[in-house]
Amino acid sequence: MKKILTTVLIASATFSVFSQAQNNHHDIYSRSIELNQKSLAFGLTEAEFDAIKDEAYANSNFVLGKIFQEDQLIKDDVPMRYNAYADEIEIKKNPSDESYSALIKDPNIFVKIFKDIYVFVPYEGSHEKGGYFNILEDGKTYDLYKKVTSTYREPQKAQTNYQKDSPPTFIKTTKYYLVHDGTFLEMPSSKSKLLKMMSKKSDEIKSYIKQNNIDIDKEADMIKLVSYFDSLL
Known about the structure:
Number of strands: 11
Largest sheet: 11 strands, antiparallel
Structural class: alpha+beta
Radius of gyration: 20 Å
Distance between the termini: 17 Å
Strand content: 35-45%
Strand order of the largest sheet: 1-5-4-3-2-6-7-8-9-10-11
């Protein structure tokens, strides 16, 4: 992981790498996305889909970012966004384009969208079962990854006169993972289970949480906690 973040820092400081590498990368576009097929895929009218489509994304806006292949910056200033429903990085060739494509899913390719770094991680050797994770913290022993998932909920008709119809929507959930040597451990939501996970240094962690008023439901505090835990090892 240190290699990825070091690559990002170097690329942010110099652009000579980009000019050398951009002619050597393979095709990073896996497919084009047909916009007019999206509403049909959910059985919705175009207006119904337009009303909820932004909820499928971690951030619905296309933001200029960088695409890396291994330790090389291969494209800079690329409009990108993360589709948390399809688990894809969507990219445009030009900011003014209406059409866009999906980035090829490859563990050797990662992106930085503004301040967020997304890496693709295969599952049990399978790319199809793998997914994108956002790196929040990297340490000498443990990393902290974030996974945002958006799930489609179909419209529901009211069952009684006292209820209202529920419109279609996307529901976002966020999970955090403590990562060590390729093993992902989902971060628990309870303090007792968290201390058990960090049992190697549970006394120090308990003291740190108390002294610093750490709220494990807050992402910023979770990052601080994992960083401190890693520093103890």
